[in-house]
């Protein structure tokens, strides 16, 4: 089974492809000081909901990088009212970015496209102009387990702020997903994959889709729900 096809199925009914709401994402309008003339780079943009919203209301120049062509079909479906958006169907590592060329660099739930958090921050900081805005959304630790089972856990928000600071940027705002936000996101995946399986009982990927769907659902219930959250960090690059 092609992983890109699986995620196209799992996220076919949603356009905000992270465990966060549209209302919370709109806080970024202020935190990023969105206005006409800004240049925006979105790493692993998916369907590019946020950047499309900005380009409908502001004359921005946006660039999205996304490896899944099904997501880009949605991103390109309707030209924005005011801004101009360009999408590249390629891996992030294969995309050449002019250093210090963007006012805002976004990476919402796509750090895996580059590597770990430090590598992602290196990439984002290099692409941002001095004084530019970095917006990183990722899994964070909320409730450390009472008994450690030896698993590698993500950093909490304080730890993440420290890492960002060591990458020459200062965090000015955070936006956190609630338990309900994450539950909705995971439930959308589960519902969409089960619905697809009922609609396509003879598809060659049927068994694999159901297997991964169940695995991800139980991982959310066992590993994510009790101790983890998801947080957006907004930071300014020094300079």
CATH architectural type:
3-Layer(aba) Sandwich
Order of helices and strands: HHHEHEHEEHEHEHHE
Tell me the name of the CATH homologous superfamily.
Vaccinia Virus protein VP39
Report the β-strand fraction as a percent range: 15-25%
CATH topology type: Rossmann fold
Ends apart, CA distance between termini: 46 Å
Radius of gyration: 18 Å
Q: What is the domain total for the residues?
A: 1
Structural class: alpha/beta
Overall shape: globular
Give the overall pLDDT as a whole number: 96
Tell me, what is the CATH class?
Answer: Alpha Beta
Q: Enumerate the spans where pLDDT stays under 50 for 5 or more consecutive residues.
A: none
Q: Give the helix level as a range of percent.
A: 40-55%
Main sheet specs: 7 strands, mixed
- Strand line-up across the major sheet: 3-2-1-4-5-7-6
Give the count of helical stretches.
9
Total beta strands: 7
Task: Give a brief outline of the structure.
The protein is α/β, with parallel strands linked by helices. It has 9 helices and 7 strands, in the order αααβαβαββαβαβααβ. Helix 8 (179-199) runs antiparallel to helix 9 (206-227).
Please tell me about this protein's structure.
The chain has 239 residues and is of the alpha/beta class. It has one domain: 3-Layer(aba) Sandwich (Rossmann fold), CATH 3.40.50.150. 41% of the residues lie in helices and 23% in strands. The protein has a seven-stranded mixed β-sheet with strand order 3-2-1-4-5-7-6, sandwiched between helices. Helix 6 links the parallel strand 4 and strand 5. Helix 8 runs antiparallel to helix 9. The longest helix is centred in the C-terminal third of the chain and has 22 residues. It is globular, with a radius of gyration of 18 Å. The mean pLDDT is 96.
């Amino acid at each position: 089974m092609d992983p890109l096809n699986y995620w196209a199925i799992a996220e076919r009914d949603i356009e905000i492809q992270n465990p966060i709401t549209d209302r919370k994402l709109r806080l970024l309008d202020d935190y990023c000081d969105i206005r006409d003339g800004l240049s925006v780079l979105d790493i692993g943009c998916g369907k590019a909901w946020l950047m499309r919203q900005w380009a409908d209301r502001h004359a921005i120049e946006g660039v999205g990088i996304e490896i899944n062509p099904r997501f880009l079909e949605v991103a390109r479906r309707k030209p924005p009212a005011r801004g101009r958006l360009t999408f590249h169907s390629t891996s992030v590592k294969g995309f050449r970015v002019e250093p210090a060329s963007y006012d805002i660099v976004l990476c919402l739930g796509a750090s895996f496209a580059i590597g770990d958090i430090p590598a992602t921050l290196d990439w984002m900081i290099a692409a941002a102009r001095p004084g530019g805005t970095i917006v990183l959304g990722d899994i964070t630790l909320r409730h450390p387990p009472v008994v450690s089972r030896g698993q590698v856990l993500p950093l909490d928000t304080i730890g993440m702020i420290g890492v960002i600071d060591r990458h020459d940027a200062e965090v000015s705002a955070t936006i956190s997903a609630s338990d309900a936000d994450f539950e909705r996101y995971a439930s959308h995946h589960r519902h969409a994959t089960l619905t697809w399986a009922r609609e396509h009982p003879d598809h060659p990927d049927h068994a694999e889709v159901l297997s991964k769907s169940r695995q991800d659902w139980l991982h959310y219930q066992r590993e994510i729900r009790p101790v983890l959250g998801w947080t957006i960090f907004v930071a300014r690059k020094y300079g």
